[in-house]
TrEMBL record:
Annotated GO biological process: chemotaxis; signal transduction
Stretches assigned to the HAMP domain: 214-266
Residue stretches spanning the membrane: 14-33, 193-212
PROSITE patterns per UniProt: HAMP (PS50885)
Source species: Xanthomonas pisi
CC per GO annotation: plasma membrane
Name of the protein described by the UniProt record: Methyl-accepting chemotaxis protein
Record keyword Transmembrane present: yes
Similarity field: Belongs to the methyl-accepting chemotaxis (MCP) protein family.
Keyword set, alphabetical order: Chemotaxis, Membrane, Transmembrane, Transmembrane helix
UniProt lineage: Bacteria, Pseudomonadati, Pseudomonadota, Gammaproteobacteria, Lysobacterales
Amino acid sequence: MTALLQRYNVGPRLAAAFAVLIVLSGMIAFIGYRGLSSARALADNIVHQNMVKIRLANDMMNANFIIGTQLRNLALPYAEERNDEFVGVIKSARADYTKAREALYALPASPQDQAIRAQIDSLRTVAKGLNDQVMQLSIAGKDSDAIPLLFNKASPATQQWQDKIAENIALQDKLAADASAVALKSMDDSRKMLVAGTVLVVLLSSALGLLITRSLTQPLSRATRAAESIAGGKLDNDVDTQASDESGRLLKAMSRMQLQLRNLIAAQTDMAKRHDEGQISFRIDASAFPGDYGRMANETNLLVASHVAVQADLARIMGRYAIGDLSDTMHQLPGEKAVFTDTMAQVKANLGAMNAEIKQLAQAAANGDFSARGDAERFQYDFRVMVESLNNLMSTADGNL
């Protein structure tokens, strides 16, 4: 996995990791939003539909209860003077029922709701017709006909009507309970998915962080060790890599740097070997090295050329001195190189003085003066021996003469 990550630059790696985390976080947020929205919709349905339907159905049942009570009051012959009051209450209760029914039927209805509403209306039509007959008989004073009709037909029909309304209430209770269970399950599922998603994001972010960190720190650690080794003069560090990211390119650059340094050292070693073998004209090919490496090679060539030039100048002047030409003088060299100039000047001075002594003795012998002697004390070693030998020659010649 680390090798795969190292094929890409750090920027794309981090961007991909953040993109994955953002997508996962967005999915978690969406899951939470969807769960809450679902629970909210179910709660709204419970509050604004099921509970309202139950309330309106209860209002319808209350209205029917009032109607039933007033029908009994109207049918029983105990307070006939209040019949108009009982009829007014019945009409008011019927108006309340109609109002509640219209409000109930204005709400959205499922096929099951529509079916039970049709049954309620059907039972209402039957019960209302019977109740109207009871009212008419009671108002007409026919209590003996009204009471059997009330208890034998009207009341049972009204009870069936009430039972159907109660069935509708039970249905709405069940629907509300089911919706509540679904809402709770949706919230519970959303909670579980949020927890699982959060754990997944934490684990994935930790894994990505670890992998990306390792993909960066491992090659950087190798590069650091290689740089420290190169600084310490060790140029055979293992910096080979197949990575193509920034750290991989750093290792490859360090590998090329090591190679250039080794090549430069090898070129210097080869030049030293060739000079030891006498090929002092050999120079490093500075054009084979880029940038400052080429400048270092060129500076090395200039240094070697400078020393070779001094040696060549020494050989040339010594060659002239060897054939007796003392007219050439070595140019003054700077710094510690001045020892060559001073030495050659001393050689020239000694050879000149030796030449002067020989000329002086030769001229004296030519003039017949064999008493002349050279100043041997001015010279050392073989030069002194040479002057002393000339002096002995002059002395022998003078004695023989």
